[in-house]
Specification:
- The complex is a heterodimer of chains A (283) and B (848).
- Chain A contains five helices and 18 strands.
- With 283 residues, chain A is α+β, with helices and mostly antiparallel strands.
- Chain A folds into two domains: 125 residues, Bacterial OB-fold (OB fold (Dihydrolipoamide Acetyltransferase, E2P)), CATH 2.40.50.200; 109 residues, no CATH class.
- In chain A, 43% of the residues are buried.
- Chain B has one domain: Maltoporin, Chain A (Beta Barrel).
- In chain B, strand 5 and strand 6 form a beta hairpin.
- The N terminus of chain B is likely disordered.
- The chains are: A alpha+beta (283), B mainly beta (848).
């Protein structure tokens, strides 16, 4: 029976030791595992968004693009991304002088470049231009400004240690404000009535065959609603049918909206980022 | 197989237990240890993992050789799924009542010394002492301690397969004078890294059995065993990935974390089992065997999950160069971006880390989500399937007279399968809510329909907490059977029949928001009456030729769950059974011929099976509706038919030639009713699936082998050349829905639908060999055996794979019409698994 004892001992020891897929320690994150940590912040290279927009005003307003050849850096904070599925393949950045769109040919960007994150963009070899006069950084696409590849983006961005949403300046929206200066800015619209609110219509309903959309239709997967009865040539709330909040029934009472005030030529297009950018009870 | 029966009958009647093909004592030609479980292990490495059916029959040349000869290519006997193969232990049927299959590697994997010499195989039309043989045969393992030889045995193995090293120690007492017998075996299989990069293997196995023979009438036997195993899986990918990685074994499941290789798909299994047997010899010619089998099986499989964020798979389609440039010339080229193609190519090929999971980036992403107070973007899930089973089998064997035998028995089984998902690693994230993110969009985040569990809404879950789904499936089965066989003149004939009942229900532990009234608590109970019969006869002409025939008709209750099948519409979401779920019918007929001469043993058989009212079930993402779907197919009709040949030609006493071959077909005979449930909104859509003519996948339908065996002075040499062809990949149903075909424009000028051809994998030739010798050391035998597989290193053979279900076009969400053609073509990029290149196994085996 000695063998039996040997046997049971072997089994017991093996059962206790038989574990291989250990608990994994989190990786060292002193340096972000995203972006290009070799970009050195250099005050002498820094430009502001306003300086950029001024320098490339023709490209922005003319619907063209221009490649940036100077070794310049843009220090800015992320104010919008694709977390709610409404902003698509772009992020919006802002500094104290203005805001602009960064076109990146990738989805699921939000966990890598979150709102409140301060970043440094190395501008050399990127393109700048305008789409509907909305200033945008990206890459060339068929003779106009388009998105850069995610690979290129990661080579040109450095994630900085600062992450602070409270430092973001939120403007109270004014339809008359200067589009060249403020387009792309994070804004707040207080006590605003969203058009088409009838208690059932949603922000961006899917089109159903045989029905007619009664408001400014669904084009390219976006649905527009008026705000405060303003002309829809001047101001719209723009929502993607893919947005997480597309099926939100439009509130029938005034709301406070937070969002990105982008422009399409002379029209303000307000893009909200997530469902909680609509505050029903906030007056 | 019929042939097998015939042959078996020839050798002393169908009731004669046949030895396992791994039992080398019976056939002097069989090189020792040729078949090894590591061959089976090859098949474990994927989420579609299936055990291979173990087909053995010592007296049938075809059956006794196919399992190990063709195992590198996942050859399935008659293209049948594992649920058509019944496994018994000491007379009790142990196939899972829930899935219908016996999971060999979860249960007795690694216990070679326990099962190697104890299996009694019965071909489909072969009579036996334990039950009606299944369509892919049945095996009854004898786990009584008196079945094992006394003494010690040590086995040491080295290999470059899925594990690197193996050690087994076994010890048996034989039967003592007081009637006690004990046998135990314990083994360990290990690999820090297996054949494929990023995999590992860590498996203990133990088996203990004790028997008390009270007198020549009563004996009790108690056995217990288990194989706690942890292993890292290998995933499969597309040809483009293999090309970019310059490796046919490229494994997308792992990535570096802190400089170490971390596998995202870790399987942990442990299925402690026990078997109590009472043998009662009532009279000399009447024996009652009763066995109670119980197990609590734990099966846990991890996977990396993402939450609305970028898919972290390194081989995600958007990461491939061909996402950027239409390399097939199927689009107008307007979206071609050759620079981006080059960028992606450079990225894939520049550094191995680039084509693997980038764990550090995912942890970084979660730290960003923590900064904004959001839910985890990436986390690890573990899918659990815990099975508590109790089975009771009792069989009466009555030898009425030397030519007439009768068997009857009952088999009872009860199974509770606990299915749930837990968070296994938050990967640094601080929050995660138990919410159906796929439904958000269709519904807003505050809508109760997005809750996975309305009884505990918006629960913030952490490691170990249940997430997404949690339900039990309970299945109870009872079967009674009987068999009568008689020898008359040159014939040996039998008739057997069974009748049984199955009942099943689901018991939901979460109240899913999309099915608030129909997901929590017990479902209704579905009950099925099943049964069938078999008739067969063997005609023995002289002592050399045997001709056999068999027919059978079986009705089987649907399996509650399992690979490719199921009884519930979307068990992760609700309590509904599949609409139109019916008992499956299968008719089979077989004819076989066997010859047994001194210089030639051969078996030839032909078979035909026709299945109707079969049920199939799958789940996958369906592009055109932008949703994950649960897909049920009912009323499936399939035909299986083919011819099989096995022969051994003894040229001299030292040299023989083996020939094996099978030409089979296994296909869908008509288009099928399909219905799919959208996980994003819970709605069900009915459609017609144009699957007529699709073939059974993941097995070569044509196989052929020539083997040369030579022995001299105690040395054995074998060399086998194996040829495989007609390997189909699993077809994707959603590409063949009527609505999809119309949407994609697959309509010819006459208005007929053009159904895409099923994707195939490469067949080809593989050369295997082995060398063995038995030495004597300290007067005890030491066997040494070296097995060489795929000697010519042919890495281009595909052993399985599947078509991608995604569409190569986008669907306009507003009109439901085809919108744009994607640059990336999913249909040109099926997922394929290639065989391992040259590999070996060295076994040392010492008895003392």
């Amino acid at each position: 029976m000695k063998a039996k004892h040997i046997f049971l001992t072997i089994i017991s020891v093996m059962m206790l030791t038989a574990c291989m897929d250990k608990e994994w320690e989190a990786p060292d994150m002193t340096e972000p595992a995203y972006g290009n940590n070799s970009i050195q912040q250099d005050a002498t290279k820094q430009v502001t968004i306003d300086q950029l927009k001024t320098a490339y005003a023709n490209a922005i307003s003319g619907g063209g693009f221009q490649r940036i050849t100077d070794d310049q850096q843009l220090l800015c904070t992320v104010i919008g991304n694709d977390i709610g599925g409404n902003i698509y393949k772009q992020i919006i950045v802002q500094d104290s002088t203005g805001a602009m769109v960064v076109g990146i040919n990738g989805t699921g960007l939000f966990p890598f470049i979150s709102v409140g994150q301060q970043i440094l963009i190395s501008l050399k070899d990127l393109c700048i231009g305008g789409y509907g006069q909305q200033a945008q950084i990206g890459d060339e696409y068929n003779g106009s400004i388009g998105r850069m590849s995610t690979k290129k983006w990661e080579e040109h961005v450095r994630i900085l240690p600062s992450h602070d949403m409270s430092q973001i300046d939120t403007l109270d929206f004014d339809i008359a404000m200067d589009k060249n200066r403020y387009a792309g800015h994070l804004v707040r619209l207080k006590d605003v009535m969203i058009g088409d609110a009838d208690g059932t219509t949603t922000l961006a309903p899917e089109y159903k065959a045989g029905t007619t959309l009664t408001y400014n239709g669904s084009t390219n997967g976006y649905v527009h609603h008026s705000l405060n009865g303003e002309s829809m040539n001047a101001l719209v709330l723009r929502t993607s049918t893919y947005a997480d909040f597309a099926s939100l029934v439009i509130p029938t009472e005034p709301v406070t909206l937070y969002g990105i005030a982008t422009r399409y030529n002379s029209t303000w297009q307000i893009l909200i980022r997530a469902a909680d950018d609509i505050k029903v009870n906030e007056k | 197989m019929t042939v097998a029966l015939l042959a078996v009958a020839l050798h002393g009647g169908a009731q004669t237990p046949t030895t396992s093909e791994r039992d080398t004592t019976e056939v002097d030609w069989e090189p020792a240890f040729v078949f090894d479980e590591s061959e089976l292990d090859m098949n474990e490495e994927s989420d579609v993992s299936q055990d291979v059916i173990q087909i053995n029959s010592g007296s049938n040349m075809y059956l006794s050789n196919i399992s190990y000869t063709f195992s590198p290519m996942w050859f399935k006997f008659r293209a049948l799924d594992q649920r058509y193969n019944d496994i018994y232990m000491n007379g009790v049927l142990v196939n899972s009542a829930e899935t219908g299959s016996f999971a060999f590697s979860n249960s007795i994997g690694g216990l070679n010394d326990a099962y190697n010499r104890s299996g009694d195989f019965a071909a489909p039309f072969e009579t036996n002492t334990f039950g009606l043989s299944a369509f892919a045969g049945s095996t009854n393992y004898n786990f009584r301690a008196n079945n094992y030889a006394a003494g010690h045995k040590v086995t040491l193995s080295g290999t470059n397969r899925n594990y690197r090293a193996r050690a087994i120690y076994s010890f048996g007492t034989g039967v003592s004078q007081k009637g006690w017998a004990f046998f135990g075996t314990v083994g360990y299989r290990w690999a820090n890294e297996g054949f494929a990069e990023g995999t590992f293997y860590n498996s203990l196995s133990y088996f203990l059995t004790l028997q008390k023979i009270f007198n020549n009438r009563h004996s009790l036997s108690l056995s217990t065993w288990g194989t706690p195993t942890e292993r890292g899986q290998q995933g499969i990918s597309t040809d483009e990935a293999y090309w970019l990685a310059n490796d046919y074994q490229y494994n997308p499941y792992w990535g570096y974390q802190n400089g170490k290789k971390r596998n995202s798909r870790v399987v942990k299994i442990f299925e402690p089992s026990a078997l109590l047997t009472w043998d009662f010899q009532i009279r000399d010619n009447l024996k009652l065997t009763t066995s109670l089998y119980g197990k609590y099986g734990m099966d846990c499989r991890t996977r990396l999950q993402y939450n609305n964020s970028l898919n972290p798979k390194p081989d995600y389609w958007k990461a491939f160069p061909s996402y950027f440039y239409d390399v097939w010339g199927l689009t107008d080229g307007s979206n071609n971006d050759i620079a981006a193609w080059q960028d992606a190519y450079d990225y894939w090929t520049a550094d191995k880390a680039n084509r693997q999971i980038q764990w550090d980036k995912l942890y970084y992403a979660n730290s960003q989500m923590n900064a904004v107070g959001g839910d985890a973007a990436y986390y690890m899930l573990a899918r659990h399937s815990n099975q508590f089973a109790l089975h009771l089998g009792s069989t009466l064997n009555w030898d009425i007279n030397p030519t007439t035998k009768f068997q009857a028995g009952v088999q009872l089984a009860s199974n509770t399968g606990q299915h749930y998902q837990t968070i296994s690693d938050m990967m640094g994230a601080e929050k995660l809510h138990n919410v159906n993110n796929y439904a958000i969009g269709k519904y807003v985040g505050t809508d109760p329909r997005v809750q996975y569990d309305l009884n505990n809404p918006n629960a913030n879950v952490g490691v170990g907490d249940r997430f997404g789904y949690d339900y039990n499936i309970v299945v109870q089965k009872a079967t009674a059977w009987a068999q009568y066989s008689k020898d008359m003149g040159i014939s040996h004939s039998f008739i057997s029949a069974k009748i049984g009942g199955t009942q099943m229900w689901r018991d939901g532990k979460m109240r899913n928001g999309l099915f608030a009234d129909n997901s929590y608590g017990k479902s209704g109970t579905a009950r099925f009456l099943d049964g069938g019969f078999k008739i067969g006869t063997n005609l023995n002409f002289g002592k050399v030729h045997v001709l056999g025939f068999g027919v059978s008709y079986m009705m089987n209750a649907p399996n509650a769950s399992g690979f490719g099948t199921g009884a519930f519409q979307a068990p992760e979401m609700n309590n509904n059974f599949i609409d139109g779920l019916k008992v499956e019918h299968m008719a089979a007929a077989e004819i076989g011929y066997a010859v047994n001469l001194n210089w030639l043993r051969a078996n030839l058989s032909a078979y035909y099976m026709h299945g109707t009212r079969l049920n199939e079930w799958q789940n996958y993402y369906y592009d055109d509706v932008n949703s994950f779907t649960y897909v049920s197919m009912t009323g499936v009709e399939k035909d299986y038919y083919g011819v099989e040949l096995g022969l051994r030609f003894k040229v001299t006493s030292a040299f023989s030639i083996d020939v094996l071959g099978s030409m089979a077909d296994a296909k869908y005979m008509k288009n099928t009713e399909v219905s799919y449930l959208l996980s994003t909104e819970g709605t069900v859509t009915n459609d017609v699936l144009y699957n007529k003519g699709m073939r059974e996948a993941a097995t070569p339908l044509t196989v052929a082998s020539i083997g040369l065996n030579y022995n001299i002075r105690g040395w054995w040499f074998t060399l086998k050349g194996n040829y495989y062809d007609r390997i189909y990949l699993s077809y994707s149903p959603s590409l063949r829905y009527q609505s999809t075909l119309i949407r994609s424009g697959a309509v010819d000028n006459d208005g007929s639908l053009i159904v895409p051809e099923q994707a195939k994998g490469n067949g080809g030739f593989m050369l295997d060999g082995s060398i063995g010798h038995q030495f004597r050391i300290a007067n005890h035998p030491l066997s040494v055996n070296l097995m060489l597989t795929n000697i010519l290193n042919n890495r281009k053979l595909v052993n399985r794979g599947w078509e991608q279900s995604r569409s190569s076009y986008t669907t306009d969400q507003t009109t439901g019409e085809k919108s744009t053609i994607r640059t990336y073509n999913f249909q040109k990029n099926p997922m394929k698994s290639y065989v391992q290149g040259f590999n070996f196994m060295l076994n040392l085996n010492y008895r003392f």
